[in-house]
Amino acid sequence: MTPDEFRAAGHELIDWIADYRERLAERRVGPDVAPGEIRAMLPAHPPSSVVEFGDVLADVDEIVLRGTTNWLHPSFFAYFPSNASYASVLGDLLTAGLNVNGMSWVTSPAATEMETLMLDWMGELLDLPPRFASGGDGGGVIQGSASEATLVAILSARWRSTHGAVNADGDTSRLVAYLTAQTHSSIPKGLRVAGIGEDRQRIVDHDEAFAMRPEAFADAVTADLAAGLVPCFVCSTHGTTSSMAFDPTPELAATCARNGIWLHVDAAMSGIGALAPELRWVNAGLEHADSYCTNAHKWMGVNFDCDLYWTVDRAALLGALSILPEYLRSSAAASGAAIDYRDWQIPLGRRFRALKLWFALRLDGVDDTISMVRDHVGWTQWLADEARRDERFEVVAPHPLNMVCLRLHAGDSATDALIEAANATGEALFTRTVLDGRTALRFSIGTATTTRHHVDAAWRLLQQLAT
Amino acid sequence: MTPDEFRAAGHELIDWIADYRERLAERRVGPDVAPGEIRAMLPAHPPSSVVEFGDVLADVDEIVLRGTTNWLHPSFFAYFPSNASYASVLGDLLTAGLNVNGMSWVTSPAATEMETLMLDWMGELLDLPPRFASGGDGGGVIQGSASEATLVAILSARWRSTHGAVNADGDTSRLVAYLTAQTHSSIPKGLRVAGIGEDRQRIVDHDEAFAMRPEAFADAVTADLAAGLVPCFVCSTHGTTSSMAFDPTPELAATCARNGIWLHVDAAMSGIGALAPELRWVNAGLEHADSYCTNAHKWMGVNFDCDLYWTVDRAALLGALSILPEYLRSSAAASGAAIDYRDWQIPLGRRFRALKLWFALRLDGVDDTISMVRDHVGWTQWLADEARRDERFEVVAPHPLNMVCLRLHAGDSATDALIEAANATGEALFTRTVLDGRTALRFSIGTATTTRHHVDAAWRLLQQLAT
Predict the structure, then answer these.
(1) Which of A332, A363, A394 is the endpoint of a domain?
(2) C or N: which end of chain A has fewer Cβ atoms within 10 Å?
């Protein structure tokens, strides 16, 4: 493809994206395809000759979109929001266009320095404790996903527990981690990766609001210490995936401080709520946390992938992840004047991802995001009231933010059938979960283009199908 | 940003990218900035009002580019190639524009099915053994980087060694891994992440060509078995980072087969060479490998990130990485009819990365890449001959592909000074490494826009500065 062909095709694709988004409400939310159907529409073998850009775009329309779940659809109430503002898409396009590798400061200084600054900016906008800022012993970094942030936190915890006074013999086989049945699946996965198997993962009791019981956590730690084990890591979730429950970080922190336990706070979805001053309660207890993450690529609308991860203990992070072969040495890093972000993450290579955050903050700012967040929270409360007024429905869990879990009094199979029927219409999309053994429908309001009308229509759809 | 503003700004940015690339040769390769200089040019605090797109683009020109290492520059001979074809940039733009999450089949069927197909296509184009194809017990997936591919391979190996007859008690504390001093830093890092510490990482001797000695590997395994340990994993590198050495996979394979050792082949940079039939020797021994990776985002020019990872043992992969919470269940996956790629990687979320590979293969094909590969290999041989003819220089290692390591007879400090002086000119960029204790200059020829003229000019620059 020549530069001029790129210009023409690029303009066409930019327009295609705008068209797709402007007309998205006319499409089904979820696709209606069976496994294998999309693959069967594509050639089994690689092409032997090249085609025009228009041919590829036609296949996008006819094949790709046929098998696409439209996460940006205004009636997408499933999983979690996956917003991608136009500004962030342009930032990401520049990332691809430059294609520099930001693994070390020296491999593209602007990529590193803008990223450090963007994390400081975000810390300020979210009103995070100053100890997460880059000036001191802490700092922030963009991870691909909250799963990767979690794994980095676990590895930092493992390093600290095996390189300090707590467990001076460096033995990892006695490390114990704490979570609840509501903690995101990435935490047990990360623990497993780090060699902390299920036999050393304590599922701490949760209360009726699905939040960790702090006294149960303290008791579990006491029991493990008595057994000669080393309590190492706890994940306190601010906004669980299943029901948006908030673990009591301030109460967990005392137990952590007493026992040298790494306190990681996972606010992947909810943390962005702190852009709105009246929602800063989502940050409760962060002044005690060793690490924290929230995803700019969910509610905030910086396109995937853009997880924001902060730690207050850079030494543990580097202890866990730093490797320095000859071909990666640089005088800038050796002097301590520069950050090498490859030592802050699992992979070596890294995209210049700060650009999309910078584009979003400069071209859009956060005022519209704050208004959107307020709308979503308000509509969620309205929806919960509506559900309480409909005697067939039950509100299963607290709904302090933008998600409410519902079920039918008629039972699990009725709730399951309702979710399936609603999704099959293509008019809305929901996800199912199980809370304390019973099926629930998660109604997550987080898409940037969703209006009150879409929420209302989705609720009517559920009411109609519940009959 | 409104749709119409996006259209206008998008067209402008597409043109900016084409302009940047067309005039890239006029710029310095590496930037001339000190740590902190770029950050200081940006506002310390987040903006309180939004700006026009033109203002952002002006800052890209004046601030971002000032601190950018131009990896796409025709005189970039550092690290490894980071090509990003126009076609792949467009595919990546579509990924950002759709912003669907391909974590599970059901979350966007086309994302999964196109990815499986693209890996099958690539297996065919690279002439990989059919056992890596998706039809049987194996299959391919896009990982973000070779580091992530390696970690997935290590975790698969760990799972197999602790869930089979080899080590039926599930004990991970006796697992041993094998590498050489030339193996990429991501392998010790991945082993460390997986809890296989340095005390169980055997640095096997290499020969004068910097390749693993197969008899030394066999001896190390025998010694570990005698000590009651469990040999678990070996990384055979096809094209090491420091000197492009090839470990003898066919010879290592017998020891692996006898002892149930996972054989991972890392061809991150070199593997793409197999697009050219006469270079298929880079695949030697793959018929014995348990897993294999090469990066489409290096020599091939699909923009970062696009590592191609294949395994022949899907069961070990899923055993190592599968986690199934209620909110991720789907009937399609439960029936076994669909792949859920979240179980093939560390993170949960994932971009629809197959699009950029599909765009590249359909819009550009591979014929131009094959010609480019042949040119780069040819110029490297020419360059090595030139260096041999210049009595000041020494060719340090075999150079079967597109990189040659040079040093000055005058000694390490002279070689170091040469690299620094060359890089300071901004006319070319090289990376330093150390081979068997002595400094070497890596001259890596891999950028798509490099011509014979640029190689020649860079060599003259070195000759001139060596004086």
Answers:
(1) A363
(2) C
